[in-house]
């Protein structure tokens, strides 16, 4: 059994504890939180759980093989570093860290100590995104031209990070999983309305090279909740609507066809293609359950996680560049 300590029993910690408790080959043996009231809730839900306010108790416990960190972003680096040095495998809630150099250090440290470092980019384990990956890998969409992503809702406001660091990692991790490369450059703009220092609305434009550009809109002030991504390709396009219960993905055999010979191109002869629309059948398994199972498998076998430390580092690099772009207002920022 892989013994797991859940660190932080606030918003996300209970979800991690529940899913690891239901994962074959894993056991939630400890919970750490600085707030005794939260520990009381964990104890009530899991009576056999060892609860502690001191993180060192988990690091000293020989029955704890791995820690799942669900604490504020500014604490990720220190907690993960201590756990890795203690020989524990580490799962960290997104984003991996608040600084690029800290993320780089954790990746190097995990490799040096031979432990698994994984980031909880939960959406890359969801059935719709797995299907999107399959379609992209098979070339069903052709060459990717554009990605438009919207993740907006009213709240929840964070006090230690802005809306980019809070919401954008979800969609950035999805695109990173699909294209498997960093963007070349980006521009980012944000607005401050409810707090004097923290952006609550932001727009990001990323250039991935090879003709692919991606736009991301994240927002805590929207009166409606939208979770949508449109991916346009040379052969087909798709719409991913995470709020659609029945058809989260729709694939459109629609687009344009440009004349193949030079003379036709000079005349810009374009024809429009309008084909079928279809919605692939998707599994209904909870993404967090799949993520927990994958982490346990990687701990047992040494397999490299899909959302490993390096993927987490790539997302932190993008977030850092976006933050610099918002604050400097100097146009495009190289990654």
Task: Provide a concise account of the structure shown.
With 335 residues, this protein is an alpha/beta fold.
Describe this protein's structure.
The longest helix has 20 residues, at 309-328. This protein is an alpha/beta fold and 335 residues long. The strands form two sheets. The chain has a nine-stranded mixed beta sheet. A six-stranded parallel beta sheet has the order 3-2-1-4-5-6, with helices on both faces. β5, α5 and β6 form a beta-alpha-beta unit. It folds into two domains: 2-123, NAD(P)-binding Rossmann-like Domain (Rossmann fold), CATH 3.40.50; 130-286 and 318-334, 2-Layer Sandwich (Dihydrodipicolinate Reductase, domain 2), CATH 3.30.360. 36% of the residues lie in helices and 31% in strands.
CATH domain fold name of the largest domain? Dihydrodipicolinate Reductase, domain 2
Overall geometry comes to: globular
Distance between the termini: 41 Å
Order of helices and strands: EHEHEHEHEHEHEHEEEEEEHEHHE
Kindly state the number of beta strands: 15
**Assigned CATH architecture of the largest domain:** 2-Layer Sandwich
**Mean pLDDT over all positions:** 94
Structural class given helices, strands, pairing?
alpha/beta
**What amount of the residues lies in strands?**
25-35%
Could you list some keywords that capture this structure?
Dihydrodipicolinate Reductase, domain 2; 10 helices; 335 residues; six-stranded parallel beta sheet; globular; nine-stranded mixed beta sheet; Rossmann fold; alpha/beta
